[in-house]
Amino acid sequence: MAGQSADDILKRVEQNMSSENRVFESTMTIHGARSSRTITSRTHAEGDKKSFTEYLTPPREQGTKMLKLEGQLWIYSPSTDRIIQISGHMLRQSVMGSDLSYEDMMDDRKLTEIYSAVISGKEVIDGRETWILNLSAKVSNVAYSSVKMWVDSERFVPLKEELFARSGQLLKRTTMSDVRKIDGRWFPAKIVYKDVLKQGDGTEFNITSIKFNQQIPGYIFTKAALKQ
Amino acid sequence: MKLAFKLAYRNLMGAGLRTWLNVIVLSFSFLIIIWMKGIMTGWDHQAKIDMTNWEIGGGQYWQKDYDPYDPFTFSDSHAPVPAELRGEIDKGDAEAVLIAQGSIYPQGRMQSVIIKGINPGQNIFLLPTQKLDTVISDAIPSVIGSLMAGNLKLAIGDRVMIQWRDRGGTFDAAEIYITDIFYANVPAVDQGQIYIPLEKLRSMMSLEDEATILTYRNAEEGRPGYNGWMNKSKAELTKSVDELIKVKSAGISVFYIILILLAMLAIFDTQVLSIFRRQKEIGTYIALGYTRKEVVGLFTVEGTMYSVLAALLSAVYGMPFLAWQAKVGWTMPMDASQFGMAMAQTLYPVYSAGLVISTVLIIMTVTAIVSYYPSRRIAKMNPTEALRGKAQ
After folding, report:
1. How far is A164 from chain B (nearest CA, A)?
2. Which positions in chain B touch A143 (Cβ < 8 Å)?
3. Domain ranges for chain B
4. What's the DSSP call for residue B250?
5. Domains of chain A by residue range
6. Which one-letter DSSP state was computed for residue A101?
7. A198/B170 touch (CB, cutoff 8 Å), yes or no
8. Is A40 left (phi over 0), alpha (psi -120 to 50) or beta?
9. Do A169 and B161 touch (CB under 8 A)?
10. pLDDT tens readout for residues B101-128
11. In the CATH hierarchy, which fold is given to the domain comprising A6-227?
12. Residue A58: is the preceding peptide bond cis (ω within 30°)?
């Protein structure tokens, strides 16, 4: 911990978590109050601002595609064969019934750009030593005014995050596990999102395969690709 | 002509039970049509009164971006209250309401909600906002409508979490405490809405001194416009009620037509029968010097007189019934609050002279036409054959 400032830690976290581009397949298991369901998808992402996701299963969601481009979000549904832009209050709706809202996916600024961090302590999570970072917003137009983050002190991967409202009320909790070294960087393959105000056991996000720094054709990040 | 009326009256009275059956059926039609039209007029009056008391006051100013049917507009539809209206607001003759979008989490379920900030001391609306004027250390006092309470399974004294985003987009959340639940006939002020103190919402949203809607108490003509605000007069705001009543009235008129048709069928049959049975009488009239036109007129007057007698009869037993209905009203057998429109559970009919006179005139005209139609046969009769009772 000596010599490491909170901002340095945050920068190292970003180096691990963000990449020039990546292609990954994942499963999202939504644990509702009564039942659970799993959705698989393939995502192409370039930086933090561009991403293209195609849902593969279940059959009801198969062929649904989502494109995020510089703060805008479009969804293509094969059943209606239409592309709709998600904006305004629709951004607050949950993504396919999960604990994630569309707007959670939209904030693509770097943590160091919007938060100032301080180290508030240390804790051991699942046998890993972590630093506890308290992040507070330094800009006004940020979704969560403060974030508490537990960062693996050796691998620089967040293992837990708590997102707070301006009033201090805890809104969301994210836990990361199954940290693997992929292409020279540590990356959590399992992330559990929990909207603490909602019932249910949260949404489990498992990355089944991930490749960094791939050649992604430019047309993938266009609206035309949604209908292909 | 006087003779025609006299003869018609004598003939009708002479026909006895046949006449009275027709008159009774027609008088039912009179009564039911007037009552149903009265119910529609009463609904119109009541809906407008309820809207005035609960939702629109004497009229409103809407921030220029506000569209109640488009929640996309809510996040941007707020502006500082115009300085010219401050005096009126201070006197309590106008009230500011700020509208924000948020989510509510009853029993851990997330639902969209419209958060309305309103002055607890207001008295333009019947909303029990005085119940907001209380201090609860760790929660925001709020009132909700009975529909909302039913949907979310909330009761007075319950606490529930709400979440919203301030003007910068930052999430915020707090608990609300239900201080009262109101019952309103206007679902537009109830469904999906919670009311909290105006100043609290302004500070939550970082929108000091701003509003989305400004409601004034008195409906005055020619109120001035303010930059960035749209003036919505009471007539404009109740236009939807007029349109709804118009559509409903058109639907119900099918029922009137069926009622009138039944009555007219009876009169038509009676006319055909009396022309057939009274051929000798018709021949005698013509032999005495009546023109065919005059005889047709005589029978038409006779038929039309059914409606006069029916109007008189329905006045006898209908007036007490209509007066009683106006007093106790008609309570709908199903729950009106689920209809999604301004509608009381009990509707009180309102009758106007215009309504009664127009109904009577319409039925008399239709009866006259129906009476005239079979009487045209008389014009084709051979008087000699008619006198012998052999004209067909």
Report:
1. 8
2. 165, 169-171
3. 2-52+240-388, 59-218
4. H
5. 6-227
6. B
7. no
8. beta
9. yes
10. 888 999 888 888 999 999 999 999 999 9
11. outer membrane lipoprotein receptor (LolB), chain A (2.50.20)
12. yes
